[in-house]
Fold each of these.
Amino acid sequence: MANHSQFGFQDASSPIMEELVEFHDHALMVTLAICSLVLYLLTLMLMEKLSSNTVDAQEVELIWTILPAIVLILLALPSLQILYMMDEIDEPDLTLKAIGHQWYWTYEYTDFKDLTFDSYMIPTTDLPLGHFRLLEVDHRVVIPMESPIRIIVTAGDVLHSWAVPTLGVKTDAIPGRLNQTSFITTRPGIFYGQCSEICGANHSYMPIVVESAPLTHF
């Protein structure tokens, strides 16, 4: 759960989110190196007089052409690897269908017969003590821990987006179309998310709560 003074990501609860956090840190280090080099060169140019050797230097031109290409490769390779990992869907142990409505979610456990429920946000006036305002729902999504979960996302009216940051999952819900993704939770807990699409007046009032439990308790 994020807090007001938090600058980084939430604690990763899935392998994909762990990879995303590592790539974020990798990209920040590359950016820091570039900014430090540019700042050093600017300071050097301001402090010293330019000589004729730096005006027509083919070696310098060669370096500032090759160096950005190397930087792009260092960023592109891990990024493409994560993209392929996010698109890879293993044989799931459980398939969950999420349908976005204005403004609540409907969930269907397709592996079970007639297991469907609606998930509404709990109003502030009815919120139990200690629960999170605008994030708690009346019916949570319960999934088994350390099991491949496939989620199929669609919408019944307008565009929505099913997103849980700590799981590294964000899938658009489009009317008439089925989008799917998969994830694995690495620890038990309660993970909060929200609709990440501006779907209407009550866009911020359709939260997502995923509860991960050990398989023996599921």
Amino acid sequence: EVECLIKLFDTLVAESSSRFAAAGFDRNMFRDTLHSAFGMTDDMIMDRVFRTFDRDNDSCINVVEWVEGLSVFLRGTLEERIKYCFEVYDLNGDGYISREEMFQMLKNSLLKQPSEEDPDEGIKDLVDIALKKMDYDHDGKLSFMDFEKAVRDENLLLEAFGPCLPDIK
């Protein structure tokens, strides 16, 4: 499987016209790959997945980051996927998913209903529901421990704030 991932990486990089092509994927190429291979469409989620894969923060995903990232993405244990999803949702990297971060994620991943007067009201209600269900220490934000406990109690909460894992297909 690792050999196949490396071959795929080399093939995709060879097709790229990016200035990063010698080193790996840039953000746009990675997003195109997420979209075509996994059907991801949410720009914010794809950007966060890129940042989670890009371990050294050089704005380029090299072959090691590609293989390690896809390992968790496609075959990760529950623990690895919990950590990965938490990193995707923790927008500012402070170790917590705040009310504002939840709002931003949900705002982008939910369909807008044209009949709603204030679509943000429904999103605020969802954030309140998520906090009630997941914020075990009642500090108004989700720590990694809160998130992990909530997901272990209910696995569907793994992608509570947007689809950042591939579906079963």
